[in-house]
Design a protein that fits this description.
Elements: H1 3-66, H2 72-79, H3 81-86, E1 97-101, H4 112-124, E2 132-134, H5 139-145, H6 166-179, E3 185-195, E4 198-206, H7 209-222, H8 233-303
Parallel strand pairs: 1-2, 1-3
Antiparallel strand pairs: 3-4
Helix pairs in contact: 1-8, 4-5, 6-8
Subunit structure: F-type ATPases have 2 components, CF(1) - the catalytic core - and CF(0) - the membrane proton channel. CF(1) and CF(0) have multiple subunits.
Pfam family, one: ATP-synt
Membrane topology: Peripheral membrane protein
């Protein structure tokens, strides 16, 4: 006469054991996930501190670079109104362009690289592709542009080192000088550093070598502020191109580190939020397991 209660007790015990086992597995999984997220948070915090330290160094280099007479030759052209009126005007309609997008070699720095790529995609969309050549600087830009612009990319530059130095920029400038022969203008896209939380995309137009030399020959006739005739125009062009590229690279490097610092700060914040949610789930699972054990004890005692 005790067969049915005993059978019912055995069935309920099996269900309770399975439920308790499920709660135990759930708690273990949540605990393991919390541990992994906390490890990620430690990494992102460390990366944020490293990026902040590097950003301070890049800002020091940027301030020093700004004092290095960038736009030195171009400033003379723009300051002389008579020269601007008399200078020969070149028709830039449907002109050929040599585009240099500056990106980073490493990721985890927000959207500064994708913003540059998006800007160039929008710019060349309605242009004559046969008259545009792109030379991306940085691994991220090279990888992002090789598929949409296979006909425009002839070469790319990456692994230039961090922090970059002036001799490296001189070598890049020499390469640009040779490759941009025959183009009407050189266009540089880079991220300008505004503050630790703000970077904006800048488009800087530079003159190719032939156009610069022609302009310098004309400028010497009207402007006495320029260096004397013993100074060679090719040397002035090298200074003009390298100094402008130097400032663009310094701005881009500072923007990269500030963007990485912000990205790691956001990642750390998200990790903390995930840990809090997982901790709440863990407490709920633990409370449910304890409740189930109490129910099992009470059910066993009632059956006896």
């Amino acid at each position: 006469m005790f067969s049915k209660p005993i059978q019912r007790l055995q069935t309920s015990s099996v269900v309770l054991r399975e439920s308790r086992r499920g709660f135990a597995v759930n708690e273990k999984q949540i605990k393991m996930r919390m541990k992994s997220v906390k490890s990620i948070e430690k990494i992102t915090k460390a990366m944020k501190m490293v990026a902040a330290s590097k950003m301070r160094g890049e800002l020091t280099r940027l301030e020093a670079g700004k004092r290095f007479g960038f736009n030195s030759v171009d400033m003379v052209f723009k300051s002389d109104s008579y020269l601007q009126r008399k200078a020969p005007v070149q028709d830039m309609h449907d002109s050929s362009e040599y585009i240099i997008p500056l990106t980073s070699d490493r990721g985890l720095c927000g959207g500064i690289n994708s913003n540059i790529v998006r800007e160039i995609k929008g710019y060349v969309k309605d242009k004559n592709r046969s008259k545009i050549r792109i030379m991306p600087v940085g691994e991220k830009g090279s990888m992002a542009m090789i598929r949409p612009f296979p006909d425009m990319l002839k070469m790319s530059i990456s692994d230039i080192g961090s922090p970059c130095n002036y001799p490296t920029i001189m070598a890049i400038s020499d390469q640009v000088m040779r490759d941009s022969e025959g183009y009407d203008k050189i266009v540089v896209y880079y991220n300008e550093f505004k503050s630790a939380i703000s970077q904006i995309i800048r488009r800087m137009e530079l003159m190719p070598r032939k156009r610069f030399l022609d302009t310098m020959k004309f400028a010497r006739l009207y402007n006495q502020k320029l260096p004397d005739k013993n100074t060679s125009n090719p040397a002035l062009y090298e200074l003009y191109l390298t100094s402008n590229l130097w400032i663009a690279f310094l701005n881009n490097a500072a923007s990269e580190q500030s963007a990485r610092m912000n990205a790691m700060e956001n990642a750390s914040k998200n990790a903390r939020e995930i840990v809090e949610k997982l901790n709440l789930l863990y407490n709920k699972a633990r409370q449910a397991r304890i409740t189930m054990e109490l129910v099992e004890i009470i059910s066993g005692a009632s059956a006896l």
